[in-house]
Amino acid sequence: MALLDTLQQHAANDPHQIAIQTGDSHLRYGDLVTAITHAQETIKVANENCTLALAVDNHPAWVALDIAAAANKTPLVPIPAFFSDQQILHAVNDAGAKVFITDHPQRFTLLFVALIIQKSTIVIAGKRLTMLKLDIPTQALPASTAKITYTSGTTGQPKGVCLSEQAMNNVATSVQRMVNLTSADQHLCVLPLSTLLENVAGLYAILLAGGTAHLLPSEKVGFMGSALNIHQLHQTLSDTAANTAIFIPELLTALVAKLEVGAAALPHLRFLAVGGASVAPSLLKRASDLGLPVFEGYGLSESASVVALNTIAHHHAGSVGKLLPHLAIRLSDENEILISGANYLGYTHDSNGAENTWLATGDIGYLDSDGYLFINGRKKNIFITSFGRNVSPEWVERDLTSHSAIAQACLFGEAKPWNTALIVAKTGATTDTIHAAIDAVNQTLPDYARVSKWLLASEPFSVDNSQLTPNGRIKRDVIWKSYQAQIESHDATRWNINQT
Questions:
Q1: Domain for residue 414, yes or no?
Q2: Together in a domain, 244 and 366
Q3: Each residue of 380-436: pLDDT tens digit?
Q4: For a 10 Å CB count at each end of the chain, is N or C smaller?
């Protein structure tokens, strides 16, 4: 069943139930259906069977246009606010998005100045938006494409993943059932709706359940450009009495630190999902000690976001949970995780998708005897030492950052007889405490994976210095280019442990 059909049922069954809360105002399910219907007519006239790009902050207008596009069979491209101008131009041209709708007309009118055929104003769900018709070539997309999601990845040219409405609905339905979302739940959309994880596992899942989605402008949930105001995020979690939310590890780190220095508890919060990147075991332990209901998950864009998730009923710390029920899993001979059941239709300009085949995720992992999935790292990140041993750096980095002296770590060792760790120290850490932390980790590792040399990074890995993706993954190639000379220099060795 299409999401719009479910919303119409909710509106008929309980006309007073609030679908979206935006601070002091709200839309009931009937209001939301009306807004979607209006959006359908608006984009039907404007788009002439071409792809639609959407660059709008979290607001009911985003929801109405998103669901209207799916109902109209119009492929939609969510544009993340953190994309550079170059990435936006690439995505729009790559997807053939001839219509662009935004609440930031100044930026995009300037960006597309040579491409604009027509500019008009529309009002959706009470929000005034600018609609631009662009002079760009139409692109052929895989049949049934409902959404094209772009991730920043590690290069300047993001790849467009084409997803069907059914694939996204399957994920949302599985999440709703596993988390046991009901009409009584209040979900705070912390991440931008342009993020597939929030769009599908957050917004769609709570709307399928007939609950309430809290949508607020970025600054109201603590996002000030690339900076985070954790006081504002904590305050909004409290004010909305949110039961559920989705975080990336950086947000969890900040919230845990806030609570550890005496911030008020969040008694309404019953399910805080964390994904996008690996979560340090020490952070999960600190969250647990505070009583935060944190549940780690795992997913990828090609499988329409979530693949596995810990839940209240089935929780194993250190794992990423159990597979969503509509999916199947197997491991390759190299222990690469292969997924079937909700895969992408193809990439833009490449219709050879994996909808009915096994998707190679690029992640290395294993299933335990109880069906919990564990991730060891990315296949492409594995390096081979000069002794011929394969090392998954994420494994070592996760153990390093579980210690109180180490905030971030990046391990290198390709074709070397030793492994070198680039360390971002926590405030107050000393050479001795870092030494002790690395020594403790080495005692738990096989000889070929141990850290033999280390040096301090000149600054933390961050989005601002392009050494961290927006969802918290380190960009190894960028970090390597910045520190290669130091790593390869004998002078860079701050400390040399017994070499293997």
A1: yes
A2: yes
A3: 888 888 777 888 898 899 889 888 899 999 999 988 888 999 999 998 999 999 999
A4: N
Number of domains in the chain: 3
Spatial CB neighbours of 396, under 8 Å, sequence gap ≥ 6: 409, 411, 419, 421, 441, 445, 449, 451
Residues 121 and 240 in one domain: no
Same domain, 121 and 174: no
Distance CA 187, CA 212 (A): 6
User: Where would I find the beta strands (DSSP E) of 262-350?
Assistant: 271-274, 294-300, 305-309, 322-323, 328-331, 336-340, 346-347
Q: How many CB atoms lie within 10 A of CB 217?
A: 13
CB 430 within 8 A of CB 437: no
Is 344 within a domain? no
Same domain, 374 and 440: no
- CA atoms within 13 Å, Cβ hemisphere of 270: 13
Q: Is residue 11 part of a domain?
A: no
Query: Tokens for 285?
Result: 């332990």
**Is the domain of 121 the same as that of 196?**
no
154-193, pLDDT tens digit by residue?
Answer: 445 778 999 999 999 999 999 999 999 999 999 999 999 9
Pairing of strands 244-247, 271-274: parallel
In the sheet that holds 244-247, the strands lie side by side as 25-28, 18-22, 212-214, 186-188, 244-247, 271-274, 294-300, 305-309, 322-323
* pLDDT tens figures, 237-270: 999 999 999 998 889 989 999 999 999 999 999 9
Cβ-in-10-Å burial (0-12, 13-18, 19+) of 167 comes to buried
Same domain, 209 and 246: yes
* Beta carbons of 53 and 100 less than 8 angstroms apart: yes
3-state DSSP helix/strand/coil % of the chain, to nearest 5:
35, 25, 40
Please give the residue range of the domain that contains residue 51: 27-158
Cα separation, 278 vs 398, in Å, equals 8
Judge contact between 185 and 212, C-beta under 8 A. yes
Whether residue 323 is found in the same domain as residue 220? yes
Q: Give 455-467 pLDDT, tens digit per residue.
A: 999 999 988 898 9
The Cα 205–Cα 198 span in angstroms is 9
SS3 at position 355:
coil
